[in-house]
Design goal:
76 residues, 36% strand
């Protein structure tokens, strides 16, 4: 799974990571993957919920040492 764009939102508080994720997804082509790194616990819930509502696929959500790594494949 190749990540097309990575967004570092570590140290940012919601809703900023959500806005950054949304902007990044809009900048890639349909089918490409965006990776969002965030340490705000709200991002773990808010970003995947937004992505699914917006028609994108949440490919992976994991946590590594307090950092959430969220991968989203852009839908239509």
């Amino acid at each position: 799974m190749k990540v097309r764009k990575s967004v570092d939102c570590i140290g940012m508080f919601c809703p900023t990571p959500l806005f950054e994720a949304r902007k990044a997804v809009e900048e890639v082509e349909v089918g490409e993957i965006v990776e969002v790194l965030a340490d705000d616990p709200s991002a773990k819930k808010d970003i995947p919920e937004w992505a699914e509502r917006a028609g994108h696929e949440v490919v992976d959500v994991k946590e590594d040492d307090g950092v959430f790594i969220i991968k989203i494949r852009r839908g239509v």
